[in-house]
Amino acid sequence: MSDEKRGLVTGAREVMGGFRDFLLRGNVVELAVAVVIGAAFTGIVNAVVDGLINPVIGAFGTQDLDDYSLCLRGSCATGDGIGLRWGSVVSASLTFLITAAVVYFLMILPMNRFLARRRADAPVEPPVETELELLAQIRDELIAQRAGGVTVGAQRTAAEESTSLDKPSDGRDGRA
User: Of 175, 40, 140, whose CA–CA distance to 167 is shortest?
Assistant: First the structure.
């Protein structure tokens, strides 16, 4: 196989591998499920609007909201006028509001409560301190030690050095 063909095959494998990784990500699968459920749910909401809400509104006028319109110019009855079909806008708005309410109260609200409970039960990890914060703590401790008369490291006096040299190096204090 020529170098050019090998390059094309390798490039195609990389592209297909990237495409496979994209498809297997949780977000894409969740989005696909959401679209399918949303499409099925739209049929239910449309049935509720057409079967329940439109007849209630029909008690005051026509049963189909799409029949409500306003004629701006000419005669809308003959088809010569310019009509605004505001009834279809109201119907679509009701469909949207019902869909949004059901999604919120039956899906989003319970999921938020569940996630809040999980976060409350999860152990709280202490925040990781940065190098700058650690250095500031060391500086503050050194300043406090100096102010309290405690000596640190190279600041020990000659008397302290001689006492520490007199002690045995094996950790014993010289008592029998």
Answer: 175
Residue corresponding to tokens 């009834």: 87
Per the DSSP assignment, residues forming a β-bridge with 173 are none
> pTM for this structure?
0.44
Coil, helix or strand for 25? coil
Domains of the chain from N-terminus onward: 7-121 (1.10.1200.120)
Per DSSP, helices labelled H in the chain are 3-24, 26-48, 54-58, 86-103, 109-121, 131-147, 158-166
Give the number of other CB atoms < 10 A from CB of residue 145.
13
pLDDT at 119 over 90: no
CA neighbor of 111 nearest in space, from 123, 100, 101, 103: 103
Tens digits of per-residue pLDDT, 79-115?
A: 777 778 888 888 788 878 887 887 788 878 888 898 8
